[in-house]
Amino acid sequence: MHTESIERWVHDHTFGQDRKKSAEHRTLIVIAITSVTMAVEIAAGIAFGSMALLADGLHMGSHVSALAISAFAYYYTRLHARDARFNFGTGKVSSLAGFAGAVVLVLFALVMAWESIARLLSPVAIGFDQAIFVAVLGLIVNGICLLIFGGHGHAHGHPDHNFRSAYLHVLADALTSVLAIFALLAGKYLAQGWLDPFMGVVGAALVVRWSWGLLHSSARVLLDMQAPEELRGKIREAVESEGDNRISDMHVWSVGPGLYSAEIAVVSSRPLETAGYYDLLPGNLGIVHITVETHRCASPALTAL
């Protein structure tokens, strides 16, 4: 009896998650730069008795911790990419890390808003020269880091929530530096000291706004919500272009950055072989895992469902 190996139909579920991405390399470089800056500011703050330098160094430390979460997520994704316990690979680790990073950003913004409001109500003396120096130094470092990242959290045109979280942490830090420089200059030369804490509130509001977008998009992936309508429309169009095939049920969800799994039920008077439906789908949709269920109907006269 002739037998054929099943191997040709077997595939793994790594979907490229076992490869080291450029975003991981860039994140490690940014962590190194930020860590060195943090150490220098803390050491200088202790040596020269500058609370401004010490506070900014500790602030840098909070971002190093957040960036470390992103770096660990990349490592964990690669380490467990072939772990069979993950049904569709480890692509969702990116979204989990992005969600965690967004929560940290919100907490950071709330602390910043609380401190700013407290200083609006009870102003404190500001060492403008030292504070301006620290803010400019922070802006330069964050500008270099943003250039290294060179993107907005998208890998090959698809959202990478982990990378986006790291990018937003650095962007938030750069924003606070810009607002601080503006407020400190106004305070020093125009005697408008109230602008310093006020800009802290403005910065916190913007950070919360950015974080909300990341929380929303990463939560959609973690909760297996339907993929974008545009993608589902392309799948429907491709499948229903052949004969009288009609999709009666369809579920498409993200399993990683730019990676999707799909389950579709097709009704037709002349159903194709399963492989035939695979061949109908364009190869650029990012569908890495698909299950097709077919139902033969009695009449070929089907209306669109």
Explained architecture:
By secondary structure, the protein is mainly α. Helices cover 60% and strands 11% of the residues. It folds into two domains: 22-222, Cation efflux protein transmembrane domain (Alpha-lytic protease prodomain-like), CATH 1.20.1510.10; 229-296, Alpha-Beta Plaits, CATH 3.30.70.1350. A three-stranded mixed sheet has the order 3-4-5. α2 (51-79) runs antiparallel to α5 and α5 (161-190) runs antiparallel to α6 (195-222).
Task: Estimate what percentage of residues fall within beta strands.
Answer: 5-15%
Task: Encode the helix/strand succession as letters.
Answer: HHHHEEHHHEEHE
Low-confidence stretches: none
Q: Radius of gyration over alpha carbons?
A: 26 Å
Oligomer: single chain
Through-space gap between termini:
44 Å
Keywords summarizing the entry:
305 residues, Alpha-lytic protease prodomain-like, Alpha-Beta Plaits, 2 domains, three-stranded mixed beta sheet, two-stranded antiparallel sheet, 8 helices
